Amino acid sequence: MGLTDGASCNITSYMRRDSRLSVALHLLIHLGDAESPITSEVLAGQSDSHAVVLRRTLAGLREAGIVRSEKGHGGGWTLGRPLEKITLGDVYDALGIASAFALGLRRESPGCLVEKAVNEAVRSALAEAEALLVKRLHELTLAELARGARAGKPQKHHGRQAHDVRCDDRRR
Description:
two-stranded antiparallel sheet; two-stranded antiparallel ribbon
């Protein structure tokens, strides 16, 4: 069945999504609750990730002063500054995400005038949308996000009920 005979197609289901921002925000809120450093292995378990991938993600946050790492016995990751002083935009910037949107153009320099017009319209719309998104990310702190996670009824967390922002399977 083709697209013209009634079938629906959700192109986003075929695109690989960059989840580093979501994972990093999750981990930072856990670090904000921590009373001592947390190892990469424990953080990886909390985010259902691999410790090596997590360390690569956190390295960019360390360079931006958002987190610190301590080596040796009792070492691990800690916040570089309080959650109140970290915006979602700070994290987004530190991760160096190329674009908030996975939409792309078929050809950067097409010969067809119609495709040129389409490209300009798509570029313009994406630039406006991304500027608005990044502006909003810079207005929201991790402390606000953490308060929202802690508020109200128990929430679904990792497929289970959790009574606060911490994961039930958290180990130190």
